[in-house]
Amino acid sequence: MAxxxxxxxxxxIGSHTCLxxxxxxxxxxxxxxxxxxxxEALRRVASLAELPPATQQQRLRVIQGDIRQxxxxxxxxxxxxxxxxxxxxxxxxxGESVQHPLRYWDVNVAGSRQLLAAMQVAGCRTLVFSSxxxxxxxxxxxxxxETAPVxxxxxxxxxxxxxxxxxxxxxxxxxxxxIASLRxxxxxxxxxxxxxxxxxxxxxxxLFPFITQVAVGRRQQxxxxxxDWPTSxxxxxRDYIHVMDLAEGHAAALTTLLxxxxxxxxLNLGSGQGHSVLEVVRALESASGRRVPYALVERRPGDAAxxxxxxTQASARxxxxxxxxxPEICRDGWAWQQANPEGYASAPPAG
Length: 351
Ligand code: NAD
Ligand code: UDP
Hints:
This protein has 351 residues and is α/β, with parallel strands linked by helices. It has helices at 12-23, 39-48, 53-59, 70-79, 94-99, 101-122, 155-173, 207-215, 243-259, 277-288, 312-318, 326-339, and strands at residues 3-7, 27-32, 60-64, 84-87, 126-132, 178-184, 186-188, 222-225, 237-238, 240-242, 264-269, 275-276, 294-297, 306-307.
């Protein structure tokens, strides 16, 4: 059992990972500024983990604060003796990063630098970092191994690549760092209870939440970006990973880091399976019993035809692989969307 600082723990991936870590017996301190999430997510995590009220404050402490603020970081590191950090906090919208690169370099890069400086002061040198398959850009080979060139094509991808570089420099500069950079492919789905899930702000940029919002009647139709890609049905192919598999991947990375000598690990977290846009549409229709009307439109600038992970290294180093496929992704994602048509805003007011 360890005491962990989870930055961005109220977000989509963070909330599911918090639940898995609480169920594994760890104590958590969450630092989140709620810029893209709701405190309600963490209330539901506490409820799903069935934390007895007497221990709740010790098991799950929530600090509203910003990773760029040294005083907020200090508060987090003095709330408890932190054994390791899982660093989810960041901005993740590709289009926004093109419009506002300074924001992305500020939150993702300068924020991570600030966090690492606070870890040094606190004497904590174990970190799991949320990286992204986006840093492979247009991949030269599919499935993509970790040795593929890092060649991001947008400011978001550059910000992730810059943090990976910083982590490598830091690990080389002083002994003792245990670091895992986890390159996620396409995280989707929800906890099977349907009580926590993805709650994007405004119109979703990503395929999966867009489709579930069409199925629930919040949006009229899906636009399928391109039907002339060199894929089996002409639509884009991605490696969709159930968020619970991803959460379990973080727990496995933590166990490996804490149980082995100091090291820097860089691993893909994906399933190794690709699915086209139309396959996802059909799977969601089948899980929901609803129709998902769609129109075939132009390709979206910046998209690649196919992005699929080679997950061999994660399996070898972590003893982890995905256990849930597209049917489970759609079943659980739909359960969340149906029970929470407006996301966490569907919740009755607290108290
Ligand atoms: P999310 O937006 O749901 O979660 C991020 C959390 O960080 C939110 O709760 C937000 O309020 C918080 N946050 C943002 N800026 C902060 C700051 N300055 N200080 C403190 N908290 C802050 O996103 P997510 O999908 O859960 O992604 C988590 C991480 O994984 C991000 O770093 C993201 O770049 C990375 N990632 C996500 C995906 C994806 O498709 N979801 C894919 C690859 C990598
Ligand atoms: N996509 C689509 N319509 C949408 C959103 C996405 O056709 O409204 C396609 C997109 O072109 C890609 C796939 O769905 O082929 C996954 O896109 P997403 O934005 O979810 O992930 P990413 O492109 O970042 O891998």
